[in-house]
Design a protein that fits this description.
The chain is α/β, with parallel strands linked by helices. The chain has ten helices and six strands; from the N terminus they run H-H-H-E-E-H-H-E-H-E-H-H-E-E-H-H. About 45% of the residues lie in helices and about 10% in strands.
Amino acid sequence: MRPEDDIRELAACLDRLRWTVSGLRAGGIQEWRHVPRNLTPAKSEASRPPAGEAALEALGLELKGCTRCRLHSGRKSLVFGEGSVRSGLVFVGEGPGFEEDQQGRPFVGRAGRLLDKMIEAMGFHRPEVYICNVVKCRPPENRTPQSDEIEACSPFLFRQIEALAPKVICALGACAAQTLLGRASPISRLRGRIHFWRGVPLICTFHPAYLLRNAAQKGAAWQDLKEVIGTLRS
């Protein structure tokens, strides 16, 4: 190979490396450690799930059989949450309803079907986002969770969100918004602007169950969801 060919090949390698480093930084990776080529992770290391997924699994096991508040006495299922650990978008609702308690999954009743449509309108499929609630057990008659119930369950919600490390949080309804923001303002005052939860952008909108009763507010909710989309893309 001629010297000029060596130079061109080296320049091409450096160019590919520059693009690789730029892609890593765009993905949030600012530094990394050198691993010698002759060292490969042990099988147990290679098969280990990502840190967020492992943290969620551990949290789910910790909550299994939870009796920390009165809601456990009437539940059939503890509804932990579901979706993609790597989605970047987390929806937080209030608490499970009858269908959710029966199936052990969040947002599967009428409000859940509307939420699915909202997610699809945003350009996603339900499995591509993560959905959870402030409380993990159904309140009697689907009432709003009481303050001591929220106090008992919210630390697990916070750990859940920390494990997910989302790019954006969308709070569905007053209970979720007030719990995450630590203030008692009505949802009408909280929506329409970007808040932050521990540095993560937080956008508040109406709960799908509310929209089923107040269809005239669907346009306002769509404006909130467009704000979520824009924040995700920024």
